[in-house]
Amino acid sequence: MKDTFKHKGMRQQLVEVLKSKGIKDAKVLAAIGKIPRHLFMDSGFIDHAYVDKAFPIAADQTISQPYTVAFQSELMQIHAGDKVLEIGTGSGYQTAVLLELGAKVFSIERQQELFKKTSKFLPKIGYRAKKIIFGDGYKGLPAEAPFKSIIVTAGAPFVPKPLLGQLIIGGRLVIPVGEEVQIMTLFIRKGPKEFEKHEFGEFRFVPLLEDKN
Question: Does residue 107 have an active-site annotation?
Answer without folding.
Answer: no
